[in-house]
Amino acid sequence: PSTVVPSHYVIKLKPDLVKHTFEGEVNITAKVNESVTEVLCNAANLEIQKCSVISGDSGLQEAEVSLDKV
Predict the structure, then answer these.
(1) pLDDT class for 69, splitting at 50, 70, 90?
(2) Could you tell me which residues are beta bridge partners of residue 55?
(3) Residue 70: is its pLDDT beyond 70?
(4) Calpha distance 69→57 (Å, rounded)
(5) DSSP states along 4-70
(6) Cα separation of 63 and 65, whole Å?
(7) Higher pLDDT, 69 or 67
(8) Quick one: CA dihedral 15, 21, 27, 32, positive or negative?
(9) Do 55 and 30 contact (CB within 8 A), yes or no?
(10) What average pLDDT does this structure show over 20-24?
């Protein structure tokens, strides 16, 4: 889709080599080309704890996270 186009990613990972898991954080810079009510991200096999959106117009907003189980 061309409505929301990512342009930069900052990814921080903290691996647990014993449990074979990791914790992390990602910051995505994106250009929103038209008004949208949702942003879809690929997150297969990930557990999302929290999500927020920063907009130049309205500042920081907590976002709802929902995952499609496949």
Answers:
(1) confident
(2) 59
(3) no
(4) 33
(5) EEEEEEEEEEEEETTTTEEEEEEEEEEEE-S--S------TT------EEEETTTEEEE--------
(6) 6
(7) 67
(8) positive
(9) no
(10) 94
